[in-house]
Amino acid sequence: MANEEQKTKIQLEVYDEVIEVNIVKGEEEMYRDAAKFVTDRIGIYAERHRGWKCQSTIFLMTMLDIALNPMKKYECKNGHRSIWRKIVEYIKSYKYDNTRDTQY
Question: Which of 72, 71, 93 is nearest to 17 (CA)?
Answer without folding.
Answer: 93
